[in-house]
Amino acid sequence: MTTDTPYEVSWDARNPQNLNYSRPTGFRLNILNLPQVNFFCQSVVLPNINLGIATQHTPLADIAWPGEKLTFGELSVKFIIQSDWANYIELYNWFIGLGDPSNNDEYQAWIDAHDWRFPGPGVKNSKTVAQQFSDGVLTILSANNVPTVQVHFYNLFPVALNGVEFDISEGRTEYLTTYATFKYQYFVPVPLSS
Questions:
Q1: pLDDT tens digits, residue range 103-148?
Q2: Per-residue pLDDT band at 44 (split at 50, 70, 90)
Q3: Among 135, 151, 121, CA closest to 49
Q4: Which of these, 29, 48, 47, 49, lies nearest to 39 by C-alpha position?
Q5: Is the predicted pLDDT of residue 47 greater than 90, yes or no?
Q6: pLDDT confidence tier of residue 168, bands split at 50, 70 and 90
Q7: Of 1 and 164, which is predicted with more confidence?
Q8: Residue 93's pLDDT is what?
C-alpha cells in the first residue's frame, strides 16, 4: 500500500516578483500604415477577448464547458488631429482605398502606394490582399519609460472613423481629437526581457 505525500504550499513561490504597477500613460502605438496617427495617439483601449461556451444538455441542469472559438474585441484609438490634418487624411485615404466610393481606381491606387510593404517578386493576388491590412504594435512602458510588453496586432484594417466636432461655445482652446476603430485577426502580448 502506498501513501501520497501531502501537497506542501510554498508561500515564497507564490509571491509576485514584480510589485510595480502599470501606468495608463505609459504606452506607444505603432501601426505600419499610419505613421502620422502613431505620433499623435492619445489613448488606446486594449481589446477584450471572449471564449464562447459549449453547453452540455442534461435532464437536470445544463453544464457549461469551455468553448473552442475566441473572439477579439475592436481596437479603439484616440488621436489629436494635426493642424494640416495629415494624420486624419492618412487614415481617411485608407478608408477610401478599401471602400472604393467612386471607382475601382482608388483601390488600385491604394495598393500601388503600399507596394513598398512587399518588395520583390511574388503572387500579385496575395500581395493585393495583404496590402489591405497592416500590422500594429502597442508597446507598454514601465514607470521608467522602459518597454516591458509588446502587444502585436495582426492584419489590422479600419472599420470606423468618428466624426470631428467643431465647437466655439467652450471658450477655451481644445485640440481636435477623433477616434478610429480597427478590426484585426488576433493579438499576442509578448513580454520583453528586462
A1: 767 667 766 776 655 444 444 445 555 567 888 999 988 888 888 9
A2: very high
A3: 151
A4: 29
A5: yes
A6: confident
A7: 164
A8: 85
Question: If DSSP states are collapsed to H, E and C, what string results for the chain?
Answer: CCCCCCCCCCHHHHCCCCCCCCCCCCEEEEECCCHHHHHCEEEEECCCEEEEEEEECCCCCCEEEEEEEEEECCEEEEEECCCCCHHHHHHHHHHHHHHCCCCCHHHHHHHHHCHHHCCCCCCHHHHHHHCCCEEEEEEEECCCCCEEEEEEEEEEEEEEECCCCCCCCCCCCCCCEEEEEEECCEEEEEECCC
Rg (CA), the chain: 23
State the residue for C-alpha cell 487624411: 89
| For the chain, domain boundaries | 19-191
| CATH class name, domain 19-191 | mainly beta
> What values do phi and psi take at 179, rounded to 5?
-115, 145
Q: Within 10 A of 38 (CB to CB), how many other CB atoms are there?
A: 19
Q: How far is CA 193 from CA 68, 144, 149, in A?
A: 31, 15, 9
